[in-house]
Task: structure prediction
Amino acid sequence: MIQFRGVTKTYAGTQPAVDNLSIAIDRGAITVFVGPSGCGKTTSLRMINRMVEPTSGTILLDGADVQGRKAAELRRSMGYVMQSSGLLPHRSVLDNIATVPRLNGVPRPEARARAAELLDVVGLASVLGKRYPGELSGGQQQRVGVARALAADPPVLLMDEPFSAVDPVVRGELQQELLRLQRDLAKTIVFVTHDIDEATVLGDKVAVFAVGGRLAQYATPEEILRAPVDNFVAGFVGRDRGFRHLSFQDGTGVPIHPIETIEVERLGDPTVSVRSPWTLAVDSEGRPHGWVPQARRADVTSQAEAVPGGSLYSRGDTLRRALDAALSSPSGLGVTVDDDGRVVGVVRAGEVFELIEQARLDRGRADHNTAV
Ligand SMILES: Nc1ncnc2c1ncn2[C@@H]1O[C@H](COP(=O)(O)OP(=O)(O)OP(=O)(O)O)[C@@H](O)[C@H]1O
Ligand SMILES: [Mg+2]
Result:
């Protein structure tokens, strides 16, 4: 869909900002450009819609050289979201969202009606439409930026660090929101970030750039975490990559064991006997409430005294979540729940490790077989 062929950009008389970049960006997928500051991510992104012109090389959009398109028209045909939401401060939120459709000649009432719909799409209350950008939080402004980029329903969205100005919690929400939107919209998205976690969460494919505009690796997030091609990528991906790679390993095979449960209402009941070292207190629907250690069983007479549990695991979720459930639980047993949040059993960290080891051996064998 978008192809860079030997693209170099040199700003006046210096080292190239982007050096002989060749990369094919898939249609309908999220491609993330990630790398340290100054490695040419923004320059590469802006060459797609001709906000920056290459010094040499070609960029093709659906097989046609973008140089053959009028720059202004090309720019309007792609959504663009930047780090500082880039909203016009003296225009209402609705008018900001309607900017490009208005430039494209859509009548005002129609453009505003569509803008109101988009507020809802990006999870904002309709009352916010009348406000000015300065009257919104950072996260809300970023959502408006995304709505504005979607307004003309462009097939391509270019996003330059759109979520970097907000706190980690809001950032996580915006990422999940983008993934949810993308499931319906299936746009071709090029997303720039310097955060490898954001890249692996969002990207169908990730392009890691090194300083000097060199493309160091272009692969799925799973592959980049599992097999960085060189020391630069390994260093950039960071120390936790082994653990983070578990996010891409399927937990279907994790054994789920039965666990003794007790309804929280019955905690003070002396006729209830508890045999196992840890018993799980559940509510009347069978949802987890907390752990009751056998040693303190007699003293635990109210709901408040149960020990809070760790993260929950859903059957079939990733190995990372299975391991986290086990490691974060005071009993060392990861509480596993069904789709309705009811306890179905527990997982053990040791057994998750065995699966990790088994997967590693299987992979080694598969690699060996393809090698011969
Ligand atoms: N208009 C410009 N004139 C001259 N040099 C520029 C210009 N824009 C960018 N550069 C240089 O090109 C290189 C790449 O810049 P670019 O903005 O593409 O990096 P980036 O990867 O987006 O960095 P960041 O993560 O900090 O946003 C940098 O060395 C930068 O100083
Ligand atoms: Mg940049």
Remarks:
- The CA atoms of residues 207 and 218 lie 4 Å apart.
- Residues 11, 17, 35, 37-43, 194 surround adenosine-5'-triphosphate (ligand 1) (CB under 6 Å).
